[in-house]
């Protein structure tokens, strides 16, 4: 049996906020944000439940702290197995 990939969608308000943030950010931050968003899409499409840790008292929400960035990057996302959808709900970016 072949496993089907998940479709990754982003919250509309989050996308708008990211676009505004990206436009005003320094080039280094833009590059890192672009790289992080690409990694989020790629990784959450294949194995979303293996990346993050389940949020307390939540059955389908996960928090993933992404390694390998000069800023701390965290992703809050939900997984809907029946529809094979992973939804990015919030993105946290904090300077170290």
Provide the fold topology.
Blueprint: E1 7-10, H1 12-24, H2 27-46, H3 48-51, E2 53-54, E3 61-66, E4 71-80, E5 85-95
Parallel strand pairs: 1-5
Antiparallel strand pairs: 2-3, 3-4, 4-5
Low-confidence stretches: none
Radius of gyration: 14 Å
Average pLDDT, rounded to a whole number, is 91
Largest sheet: 5 strands, mixed
Instruction: Sketch the topology as an H/E string, one letter per element.
Output: EHHHEEEE
**CA distance, first residue to last residue:** 44 Å
What would you call the structural class? alpha+beta
Model description:
The protein contains three helices and five strands, in the order βαααββββ. Helices cover 39% and strands 34% of the residues. With 96 residues, the protein is of the alpha+beta class. It has a five-stranded mixed β-sheet with strand order 1-5-4-3-2. The protein has helices spanning 12-24, 27-46, 48-51, and strands at residues 7-10, 53-54, 61-66, 71-80, 85-95.
Give descriptors for this structure.
96 residues, alpha+beta, five-stranded mixed sheet, 3 helices, 5 strands, globular
Short description:
This protein is α+β, with helices and mostly antiparallel strands and 96 residues long. The protein contains three helices and five strands; from the N terminus they run βαααββββ.
């Amino acid at each position: 049996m072949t496993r089907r990939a998940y479709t990754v969608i982003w919250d509309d308000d989050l996308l708008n906020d990211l676009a505004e943030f990206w436009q005003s950010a320094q080039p280094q931050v833009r590059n890192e944000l672009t790289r992080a968003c690409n990694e989020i899409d790629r990784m959450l499409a294949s194995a979303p439940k293996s990346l993050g840790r389940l949020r307390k008292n939540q059955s389908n929400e996960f928090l993933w702290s992404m390694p390998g960035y000069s800023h701390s990057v965290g992703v809050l996302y939900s997984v809907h197995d029946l529809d094979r959808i992973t939804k990015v709900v919030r993105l946290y970016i904090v300077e170290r």
